[in-house]
Design a protein that fits this description.
With 119 residues, this protein is mainly α. It has helices spanning 2-9, 57-76, 88-98, 100-114. The two termini are 21 Å apart. Bound molecules: zinc ion. Zinc ion binds next to loops. The chain crosses the membrane at residues 53-76, 88-106. This is Endogenous inhibitor of DNA gyrase (YacG/DUF329 family). Keywords: Membrane, Transmembrane, Transmembrane helix.
Amino acid sequence: MFKLIQQIFTNKCPNCGKGKVFKDKNIVFSMSVPKMNSKCPTCDYKYIKEPGFFIGAMYVSYGLGVAEGLITYFFASPFFEKSLDMKIIPIIIGIMLLLTFFNIRISRMIWLYMFRSIK
Ligand SMILES: [Zn+2]
């Protein structure tokens, strides 16, 4: 399980665990929409199974965004006097924007790993 999480965060192929899923180097914190390889350079495992395959990853991305928003809220709320202080909203939005590109990558990785049994 730990190895799986490590592979997701290092953007490794779900089939062989060696090939890179994304073309560009920086693995997690890159400020651009990632370019993907269409298949694994090491084992030829197809990443893009059908056109629009990664549209579903948007749902994963949305879930990640909500989770990150909640986590941010729980970490930030002790610094505010009122428990539902509106000043916390810009902080949450800022964090979520910062994590947007991280989320695009990670959601696609999670999506790939969810479907890795389908060849
Ligand atoms: Zn591979």
